[in-house]
Structure to design on (131 residues):
């Protein structure tokens, strides 16, 4: 199965091709074509990228009716990210960015938009970023 991803990058257009292999041992792969380093990706595509990252890291993302926003938890030796389904897309992205900031991601391939969202939420959305 091939899935095409399109994101506007400055004045260029970045097109990614995602293929899901049928073999159990192979994770989905993404090939991105483009020259620009920073993407202005739409929120729904960025949310999908976060959900794909969670799947690659064996983290379960659950949506439900909650009193609060949600967050990262560990249950029976497995990580879960629980998200209030009433949150808008940008709030979901911020919550996922805060959750993934708790993990060491130096050896994990992340597209620049995902890494930026994680870095933006590493110290909190309203606090200045540390250099």
């Amino acid at each position: 199965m091939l899935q095409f991803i399109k994101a506007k990058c400055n004045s260029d257009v970045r097109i990614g091709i995602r293929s899901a292999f049928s073999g159990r041992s192979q994770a989905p792969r993404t090939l991105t074509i483009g020259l620009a380093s920073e993407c202005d990706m739409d929120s729904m595509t960025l949310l999908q990228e976060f959900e794909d990252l969670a799947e690659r890291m064996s983290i379960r993302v659950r949506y439900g009716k909650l009193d609060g926003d949600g967050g990262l938890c560990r249950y029976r030796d497995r990580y879960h990210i629980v998200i209030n389904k009433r949150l808008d897309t940008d709030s979901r992205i911020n919550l996922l960015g805060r959750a993934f900031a708790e993990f060491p991601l130096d050896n994990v391939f992340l597209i620049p938009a995902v890494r930026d969202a994680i870095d933006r939420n590493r110290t909190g959305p309203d606090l200045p970023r540390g250099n």
Notes: The chain has two domains: 1-37, 41-131. Residues 120 and 126 are 9 Å apart (CA to CA).
